[in-house]
């Protein structure tokens, strides 16, 4: 298939294949690069968020651990001594020592927290919050305490009891420890994380809202809405598009607070150089394609079209159309080539026409010579028939044969006019058929030609060779009765006379060979009559005129003689 294409098409296809291959390789490479970078962005974002979450969890764990261990301090145990009931000074002194220890812990801790100790049995409170008076209220601890950190009033609170089994009934415990820290510690850490990692971290809770850094972007609210729509697991990430920008959102759930640490980064911000490089490449390819189209168009107009025109002209010349001429307006090498081609075609046409006319004149002379010759075999048969009829005293048959034979030979030997009317042709054919009908009593014929066709003129001896072939090759070889039918019909443009016999017929191969012989040069193996009829019709009325063969409805052969009426006008 590829080998049959012309050079220009091959070059165009190769260019397209090369371009598609380059685009495919670059697109694949670009997608792989983007995929790897996206994967790295996701991993880095998750790693940074994990580091942030570990730092927050570490501080919360230290607060929780201190809250659980403070109940074992000896000062706490001493503060609860029953004998201090009558010695208030000692209890105040021990309380001051406890408060000093808690302040020392706050000073050493990364987060400044508020530590409050409730003594249900003593109904006293010790707190590091100097600016608030915290009374002991019995109804405050009438319900079970939460075993996790709770968020309320812009701070997180966590309770523990001594003993720890008293969480469900805190009013019966010896000590209730409350540790709280403000949200600003988390905000400060979020600010620090944003400064170091250039993200936009925040903390999210599906019911309580969010805690953002102090310089949060406007996109944060859209990310929060997206998080509310999703079912979040303990740790994960997803990609979403907000305001026509793609973001990667990663989250980790806090094991102590129950909130989610969330961070998101715009993918396009990081992938911007790759995207710009990709767009530049595609723009370059587009410019290259545009330039290539212009070059191919110029090449097509300047080279391919002249070559195609030259190939078509050569093909027409090889098929026998010597009237072909090439027209080319540009002034280049092809104009000179076309001019030489036209000169060559004109000279070949002149030579072929001269040779063809000479051949036609020779064939016409041959035909006239054949027409003027008496077929000895046909003549002998007719004379023997007359002799036999004379012996049998059949005067009527002798007269009929003599008259028909005379009229027949008078017509075929008349050569002063090359054309005759269909009526004259039919009269001669009737004479011939009458002769054959007298010789072959088993042969019959029917002629049905419209009256408006009888005045039309056709070459002389057009019908007789066809009828003669039908009798010799179709009717005579059979012993059964035979019938020949001659019909005609015409339109404004086309006229047709059909000769059909009921003879033995022909095979497809024989009919195809006979049709092919009509278009070949005349040689000794071919019949001259039908070939000459076809050639004369083609010469006078055009290539589409002539003889055609097909199987007849009666088992024989049907020959159609076709010509065009406008030629005779």
What does this protein look like?
The protein is α+β, with helices and mostly antiparallel strands. The chain has four domains: 23-181; 187-271, Beta-Lactamase (2-Layer Sandwich), CATH 3.30.450; 322-371, no CATH class; 376-564, 2-Layer Sandwich (Heat Shock Protein 90). Helices cover 52% and strands 18% of the residues. The protein contains 13 helices and 17 strands. The strands form four sheets. The chain has a five-stranded antiparallel beta sheet. Strand 3 and strand 4 (155-162) form a beta hairpin. Helix 8 packs antiparallel against helix 9 (395-412) and helix 9 (395-412) packs antiparallel against helix 10. The longest helix has 63 residues, at 7-69. The chain is rod-shaped, with a radius of gyration of 59 Å. The two termini are 50 Å apart. Mean pLDDT is 82; it is low at 370-374.
Write a short abstract of this structure.
With 569 residues, this protein is α+β, with helices and mostly antiparallel strands.
Average pLDDT across residues?
Answer: 82
Radius of gyration: 59 Å
Please report the total strand number as a whole number.
17
**Shape-level CATH architecture of the largest domain:** 2-Layer Sandwich
**Main beta-sheet annotation:** 5 strands, antiparallel
Structural class: alpha+beta
Low-pLDDT stretches: 370-374
Overall number of domains: 4
N- and C-termini, Cα separation: 50 Å
Q: What form results from the Cα inertia axes? A: rod-shaped
What's the CATH topology name of the largest domain? Heat Shock Protein 90
């Amino acid at each position: 298939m590829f080998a049959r294409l012309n050079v220009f098409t091959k070059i165009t296809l190769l260019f397209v294949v090369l371009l598609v291959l380059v685009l495919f390789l670059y697109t694949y490479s670009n997608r792989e690069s983007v995929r790897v970078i996206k994967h790295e962005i996701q991993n880095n974002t998750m790693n940074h968020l994990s580091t942030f979450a570990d730092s927050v969890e570490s501080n919360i764990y230290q607060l929780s651990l201190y809250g659980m261990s403070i109940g074992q301090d000896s000062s706490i145990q001493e503060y609860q001594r029953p004998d201090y009931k009558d010695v208030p000074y000692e209890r105040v002194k021990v309380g001051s020592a406890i408060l000093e220890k808690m302040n020392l812990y706050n000073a050493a801790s990364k987060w400044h927290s508020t530590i409050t100790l409730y003594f249900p049995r003593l109904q006293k409170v010790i707190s590091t919050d100097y600016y608030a008076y915290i009374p002991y209220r019995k109804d405050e601890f009438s319900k079970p305490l939460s075993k996790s950190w709770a968020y309320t009033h812009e701070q997180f609170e966590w309770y523990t009891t001594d003993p720890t089994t008293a969480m469900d009934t805190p009013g019966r415990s010896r000590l209730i420890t409350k540790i709280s820290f403000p949200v600003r510690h988390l905000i400060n850490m979020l600010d620090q994380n944003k400064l170091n990692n250039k993200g936009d971290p925040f903390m999210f809770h599906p019911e309580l809202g969010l805690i953002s850094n102090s310089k949060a972007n406007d996109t944060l609210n859209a990310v929060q809405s997206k998080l509310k729509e999703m079912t979040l697991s303990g740790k994960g990430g997803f990609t979403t598009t907000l305001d026509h920008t793609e973001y990667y959102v990663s989250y980790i759930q806090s094991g102590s607070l129950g909130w989610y640490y969330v961070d998101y980064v715009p993918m396009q911000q990081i992938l911007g150089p790759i995207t710009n490089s990709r767009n530049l490449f595609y723009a370059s390819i587009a410019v290259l394609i545009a330039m290539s189209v212009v070059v191919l168009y110029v090449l097509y107009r300047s080279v391919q079209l002249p070559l195609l025109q030259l190939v078509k002209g050569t093909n027409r010349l090889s098929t026998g159309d010597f009237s072909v001429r090439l027209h080319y307006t540009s002034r280049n090498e092809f104009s000179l080539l076309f001019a030489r081609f036209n000169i060559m075609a004109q000279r070949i046409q002149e030579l072929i026409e001269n040779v063809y006319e000479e051949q036609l004149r020779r064939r016409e002379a041959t035909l006239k010579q054949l027409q003027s010759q008496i077929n000895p075999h046909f003549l002998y048969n007719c004379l023997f028939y007359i002799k036999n009829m004379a012996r049998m005293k059949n005067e009527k048959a002798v007269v009929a044969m003599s008259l028909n034979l005379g009229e027949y030979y008078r017509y075929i030997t008349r050569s002063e006019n090359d054309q005759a009317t269909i009526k004259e042709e039919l009269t001669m054919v009737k004479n011939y058929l009458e002769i054959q009908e007298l010789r072959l009593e088993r042969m019959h014929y029917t002629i049905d030609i419209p009256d408006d066709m009888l005045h039309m003129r056709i070459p002389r001896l057009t019908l007789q060779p066809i009828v003669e072939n039908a009798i010799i090759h179709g009717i005579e070889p059979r012993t059964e009765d035979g019938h020949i039918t001659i019909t005609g019909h015409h339109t404004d443009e086309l006229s047709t006379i059909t000769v059909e016999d009921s003879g033995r017929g022909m095979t497809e191969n024989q009919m195809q060979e006979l049709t092919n012989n009509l278009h070949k040069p005349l040689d000794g193996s071919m019949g001259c009559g039908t070939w000459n009829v076809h050639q004369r019709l083609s010469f006078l009325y055009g290539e589409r005129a002539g003889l055609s063969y097909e199987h007849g409805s009666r088992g024989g052969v049907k020959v159609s003689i076709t010509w065009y009426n406008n030629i005779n006008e």
